[in-house]
Write a structure and sequence with these properties.
By secondary structure, the chain is of the alpha/beta class. 33% of the residues lie in helices and 24% in strands. The strands form four sheets. Strands 10, 11, 12, 15, 16, 17, 18 and 19 form an eight-stranded mixed beta sheet that branches. Strand 1, helix 2 and strand 2 form a beta-alpha-beta unit.
Length: 395
């Protein structure tokens, strides 16, 4: 059996090696004092820790460990998926520190910036570089093959000329080239009022491949999309918020959306190709139809001296065939399942993920000592974090 000296040796290793994270598995009830020594050292060194206790190993209350920032406690019989999830939370933060966001804009000076908490590097390049690539793209066999795959799967092509479809593929190939040239992991663009150069369809294709692509060069949305795609392996839907007050529903809409919202290996949602919603030049946008009753998770990351995360849970009501006035192409009407009032939802360009991942994002926030905003949250925080679903069953 390991003793205090063994625990102290591990503590010394933590101090000298500064690992990205720590996994502790407790096999024996009387080894808790040694686990405490290691946990305290990890806390002092600010090392996120996953602590697994077999169901029959530790008897009695575990409250001191349950809500400790920097710690994800698992007490379960043999839930190795939970251990995998905890390690993925650690890995997500590490991968974000190694990630590069390509920002294509003419509103900021070219150069590099760094997001301090997540550690994401942003490389800013002028929009003219993208435009130059776009205009050099020929509609050759590769372009025609991509165009055929996109159009063949569409349930309808509504009001679009061939040139709009071809320009959608030009945008995609230009972006792929820039991402490769800049060794980027994600891309954002100041894309409004760009005429036929708008990248709506390309952003959908990139997000399908888990290459985060963000409209309007919104850095906060980009950070959230990058975090979420690494953490849960699914693309999110960046959207404008609106509210249906009489039904107490939330309404998410934008002119680009991934079709593989269940992940790259999952089934594909139906979609049609149509004209961009807010201008009359006839450029191509994509309208994706979300599946009714699917659970959804909405997230917004707020960078700053104290990094914050806002997390919401909901359920799809419908995607309307024709968006209401002022709505963008893809639209999702949502019933919030963890707020009494849909108007409690805060934030612009929140990221909507298909699936019930609210607890995963909350645990990520605690493990990395982020502040949970919980705007409008009433009473479900404990159930979410502690593993109890709204129905009362263990999740």
């Amino acid at each position: 059996m390991a003793g205090n000296e063994d625990a102290q040796r591990i503590c010394q290793q933590l101090t000298t090696s500064k690992p990205d994270g720590l996994l502790i598995i407790m096999f024996y009830n009387r080894s808790l004092p040694q686990a405490d020594i290691i946990l305290e050292a990890a806390k002092e060194e600010n090392i996120p820790t996953v602590f697994f206790i077999g169901l029959g190993v530790k008897h009695g209350p575990i409250t001191p460990y349950r809500n400790r920032p920097g710690l994800y406690l698992i007490q379960s019989m043999d839930n190795f998926k939970a251990i995998e999830s905890g390690l993925r939370m650690i890995d997500t933060r590490k991968l974000l520190r190694q990630s590069r966001l390509l920002s294509i804009t003419d509103t900021r000076k070219p150069g590099k910036t760094m997001e301090p908490f997540l550690g994401i590097e942003t490389n800013i390049i002028p929009f003219t570089r993208y435009a130059d690539h776009f205009h050099r793209i020929e509609i050759d066999r590769q372009a025609r093959d991509i165009l055929k795959r996109v159009t063949d799967k569409a349930t309808e092509i509504r009001g679009l000329r061939q040139v709009a479809l071809e320009n959608a593929i030009r945008a995609h190939l230009a972006l792929v080239k820039l991402i490769q040239d800049e060794k980027a992991d994600a891309v954002s663009m100041n894309c409004l009022r760009r005429g036929m150069l708008k990248p709506c369809v390309s952003f959908s294709l990139l997000n399908n491949m888990l290459i985060p692509a963000i409209c309007e060069d919104d850095r906060t949305a980009a950070y959230t999309q990058m975090l979420g795609q690494l953490l849960i392996g699914r693309p999110g839907f960046q959207h404008n918020p609106c509210y249906e007050t009489e039904k107490n529903h939330y309404y998410a809409s934008h002119c680009t959306c991934a079709t593989k919202v269940y992940g790259p290996e999952g089934s594909e949602l139906p979609y049609l190709l149509r004209r961009f919603a807010h201008s009359n030049e006839g450029s191509c946008a994509i309208q994706v139809f979300w599946k009714e009753d699917d659970p959804v998770t909405m997230v917004h990351y707020y960078p700053g001296d104290i990094p914050r995360l806002d997390v919401y849970a909901g359920q799809v009501v419908t995607s309307h065939p024709m968006p209401p006035a002022a709505g963008c192409a893809t639209n999702v009407e949502i019933s919030m399942t963890d707020r009494k009032d849909a108007c409690m939802v805060q934030g612009h360009h929140n990221i909507l993920y298909c699936g019930d991942f609210a607890r995963t994002f909350r645990l990520f926030a605690r493990l990395h000592k982020m502040e949970l905003v919980d705007s409008g949250y009433e009473g479900k925080v404990a159930r979410d974090i502690h593993g109890i679903s709204p129905s009362g069953s263990c999740c």
